[in-house]
Design a protein that fits this description.
393 residues; alpha/beta; Enolase-like, domain 1; 2 domains; nine-stranded mixed beta sheet
């Protein structure tokens, strides 16, 4: 069996592109993968075209060797664009091998360690009352692990792109304490600050809540400088959840070895696919760090991450963005784009996914419908502060 083609298939799901990648073989077996670098799909497509030139004719069963060639053959190793492309290819190769052997992908990773994959949901709202109502809705539907978004950061007359961190932290902290008070000690509660804060702002935020309010704070600061998280560790006892942007085990290195995160927010579609993710998982396990996989994309990412989550010993929860409080698959058309494009895909049961037993990933794409689409420009919001300076989104 040999690789005959690698096809990037950008599809529009909800409000943005998802870059699905199809790897074809001369045995008639194909695999699907997904790249995780949202908003920079054209750059990833360019990398895929480079990789295609030397992957055609290779044996898809040699996943580990192919991973090394993709990473090391260009001298300038790594980076988020190349690893997003490499992740998609690696995931697709595992899909091919699973189908060729007639086994689900988790069997290629050591077999499943659980029958269902526990998940967490996201509560959101423009006001504190809306945030509390969203969390209450999830609680009433059986969710016991809830992450929230943030509040405030702008005044009524501001440009909608304005975000002032100092105006957000007090308001968000106050309403998180309200959620904890109302929903009680059984709730596992976290917040995602999405890299919007500085070190001092994060410390101030953590100090504004009663002890025991939060079970984790996710990505409060940018991650280029691990020393910032080392400093934050001295200022708060709240556990950290970091790693969704990491592209390779090397970026995880200081955060695992120096215990600068308590949950590994590994993204299978950015870190390097299954081949790299299993190494990170084992490494994290040795340091008693559980995985909390990042899963903001589509059914291919979800299906692949379910297999990873089934196979590792150290799983906390899987992110899911299709719940009672939100559904990222719906766009302005009012249609569930993912439902139309992926006739076979994972289905949430309550607050968990059952582990599938179909060969490969267990997800299928309507390629004719996908081929009828073309890449559409989408850019993440460009936020700024009131003085005009740049602010992370």
């Amino acid at each position: 069996m040999h690789i005959t083609d690698i096809k990037p298939l950008p599809v529009w799901v909800g409000s943005r592109n998802q870059l699905v990648v199809k790897v074809e073989t001369d045995a008639g077996i194909y695999g699907l993968g997904e790249a995780g670098l949202s908003g920079r799909e054209l750059a990833v497509v360019g990398a895929l075209r480079h990789f295609r030139e030397f992957l055609i004719g290779q044996d898809p069963m040699q996943r580990g060797r192919i991973w090394q060639e993709l990473y090391r053959s260009q001298y300038f190793e790594g980076g988020r664009v190349l690893l997003a492309a490499q992740s998609a290819i690696d995931i697709a190769l595992y899909d091919i091998v699973g189908k060729a052997l007639g086994v689900p992908v988790y069997q290629l990773l050591g077999g499943k360690q659980r029958d269902t994959i526990p998940c967490f949901a996201t509560a959101s709202g423009a006001t504190g009352e809306e945030l509390l109502a969203s969390a209450r809705l999830l609680w009433e539907h059986g969710w016991r692990v809830i992450r929230t978004g943030t509040l405030g950061g702008a005044q009524p007359n501001d440009d909608p792109r304005v975000f002032e961190p100092r105006e957000s932290i007090g308001l968000t902290a106050r309403w998180l304490a309200r959620i904890r008070e109302e929903l009680g000690a059984e709730l596992t509660l976290g917040v995602d600050y999405h890299h919007r804060l500085s070190l001092a702002e994060t410390a101030s935020f953590c100090q504004r809540m009663p002890p025991g309010t939060l079970d984790f704070i996710e990505e409060p600061m940018r991650d280029e400088t691990p020393e910032a998280y080392a400093a934050l560790r001295q200022m708060t006892a709240i556990p950290f959840a970091v790693g969704e942007e990491f592209a390779s085990k090397w970026q995880f290195l200081p955060f695992i070895e120096r215990h600068l995160t308590d949950f590994a927010r590994l993204d299978l579609c950015n870190v390097g696919g299954f081949t790299e993710a299993m190494k990170v998982a084992g490494w994290a396990e040795a340091h008693y760090i559980d995985l909390m996989p990042h899963n903001p994309l589509g059914p291919v990412c979800t299906a692949a991450t379910i297999h990873l989550a089934a196979a590792v010993a150290n799983l906390a929860w899987l992110e899911v963005r299709v719940t009672q409080s939100e559904n990222l698959y719906y766009g302005q058309s009012g249609l569930n784009d993912a439902e139309l494009l992926f006739p076979i895909q994972p289905r949430l049961h309550g607050s968990s996914f059952p582990v599938p037993d179909a060969p490969g990933l267990g997800v299928e794409l309507d390629e004719e419908r996908a081929a009828a689409q073309s890449w559409q420009f989408w850019e993440a919001p460009h936020w700024r502060r009131r003085d005009g300076s740049v602010q992370n989104w």
